[in-house]
Design a protein that fits this description.
Strand order of the largest sheet: 2-1-3-4-5-6
CATH class of the largest domain: Alpha Beta
Number of helices: 15
Largest sheet: 6 strands, parallel
CATH architecture of the largest domain: Alpha-Beta Horseshoe
Length: 476
């Protein structure tokens, strides 16, 4: 049967898959045979995305939208409307917020599906195929998770062999952090444990070994989440890799015991610290107990042997450059595998904009809608922070300078201050922080090590040569 409904995902790269579209496909019932999933990556231009859609020539095209693909999808929708206006254009995802639509997506659509789409999208498709009237904005509210069909059978063998397997044990979040799209989710809802564990067992039998869970606060799932850990402990193999997002908070004895069962490197844990400033955290309704956060991070790094990815956000209302730097250095001292410095974004539908007047906030009008300045962070300071973030990512997070980069602050100096010197050096020489080769970065790193840090040149060069050999960036 010909494809009448085309579900389209614009992923950040080939290795990523769209769980959301598979969730919709799994709940189409008799429409599944009339539907296809098209996954492309963000390297395609909007015209190329439209071309891929038109090669299939569906009656309905439905896009899954996120902040990283909203602009490309908006332009692809314009192309489709110009070339094939008869194709019904539908979209859903976190970017579909009719009252807050900075990408201008909603006017380009015939139907905008708000919220979780497993029930709403099939109902829309049925009406369109039956030539019935459909409202422009559709929002049926969250589905009952116990009633949904699970999507995991829709991962192909090729997906399991070469791409990321996304999974869920829960949806929603118990917190109301104002920068987050899950702030109004109403708490945590849980998928039936017996059903999801049976699906995970099936994926393991088919060869899946890497699972990335999309749960917003996995460690707040209680006994339900502990049972998921127990399942993977029971099915542990040396190749197993599990990726979870934890809200950094005190971990009780049960959690600590489970997490210590995994071999070092099996767990990749994202922990969003965001700020160490209690006043700032309270202002944005972010729960923060700094000492508990530090204990949880240290346990993960030192006792559980997890690869910890910790996040900080620059530009939160009331955060100053000084308080941010202090928090950054505190986090680096714990030595997580990655420290991500993000710039605050005003995501559609979030409440972070309520502070705009008090803190004189200016936002970029183009995706990803990052803060430009506020009363405590000047425009110039925000640009310096953006450059620092890129430099830190290249020096530390990508692990190409494992030996040489930590030498910047081994004398007890501020990691932020020392890496800023490298960032300033690179920017001063090439006028940018993107598309900087490791060799160019190494030149500036050597300059700061031997100058600012008083490291003897033979020692600094030896460390850089070791990093070049181990990471092979000297051949790039």
């Amino acid at each position: 049967m010909e494809c009448e409904i085309l579900l389209v995902a614009v992923n950040t790269g080939y290795a990523h898959t769209s769980l959301s579209l598979r969730c919709i496909m799994a709940n189409l019932y008799d429409l599944e045979g009339r539907t296809r999933i098209l996954e492309v990556d963000s390297s395609l231009s909007p015209v190329q995305i439209a071309e891929r859609v038109l090669e299939i020539s569906p009656r309905i095209v439905a896009f899954s939208t996120y902040i990283w693909n909203a602009s490309a999808i908006a332009d692809a929708l314009r192309v489709l409307a110009e070339v094939r206006p008869g194709i019904v254009r539908v979209a859903g995802g976190p970017q579909i917020v009719p009252h807050d639509d900075p990408s201008g997506l909603v006017p380009l659509l015939d139907v905008a599906v708000c919220g979780e789409g497993e029930l709403a999208a099939p109902a829309v498709f049925r009406k369109i195929l039956a030539s019935e009237a459909v409202e422009k904005i559709v929002d049926q509210g969250p589905p009952v998770l116990e009633e949904l069909k699970l999507p995991y059978r829709l991962y192909s063998d090729a997906d399991l062999a070469t791409r990321m397997v996304y999974a869920e044990a829960t949806r929603g979040c118990p917190f109301q952090c104002e920068y987050c799209t899950s702030s109004d989710s109403g708490g945590i809802r849980k998928f039936p444990l017996e059903k999801i564990l049976a699906e995970f067992e099936g994926l393991l039998r088919r060869g899946a070994r890497h699972f990335k869970f999309l749960d917003r606060s996995f460690n707040f799932g209680g006994e339900h989440s502990l049972a998921v850990l127990d399942f993977f402990i029971e099915h542990m193999t040396p190749e197993l890799r599990l990726h979870f997002e934890f809200t950094p908070d005190e971990l009780d004895a049960e959690w600590r015991a489970r997490l210590k069962c995994f071999e070092p490197g099996m767990l990749h844990i994202e922990m969003g610290v965001q700020t160490w400033n209690k006043t700032v955290a309270d202002r944005i309704r972010r729960p923060l107990k700094p000492e508990a956060v530090e204990r949880a991070l240290r346990f993960m790094v030192e006792d559980a042997g997890a690869d910890v990815h910790a996040d900080l956000i620059a530009g939160l209302p009331g955060e100053t450059p000084g308080s941010f730097v202090s928090g950054f250095d505190r986090l680096v001292a714990i030595a997580p595998a990655e420290v991500q410095v993000g710039i605050l974004k005003r995501l559609p539908g979030t409440a972070i904009g309520r502070h705009d007047d008090e803190f004189a906030v200016k936002w970029s009008p183009v995706p990803p809608y990052e803060i430009l300045e506020n009363s405590t962070f000047s425009f110039e300071e925000m640009r310096e922070m953006e450059r620092f973030s890129r430099c830190w990512d290249m020096l530390y997070n990508r692990r190409r300078f494992r030996t040489s980069a930590p030498m910047l602050w081994r004398d007890g100096s501020s990691p932020f201050s020392r890496v800023s010197k490298v960032s300033d050096s690179v920017y001063g020489k090439v006028g940018r922080m993107h598309s900087v080769s490791p060799k160019r970065l190494a030149e500036s790193l050597l300059e700061v090590l031997t100058g600012e840090c008083s490291v003897e040149e033979p020692e600094a060069r030896a460390a850089l040569e070791r990093d070049a050999r181990e990471s092979a960036w000297d051949k790039s």
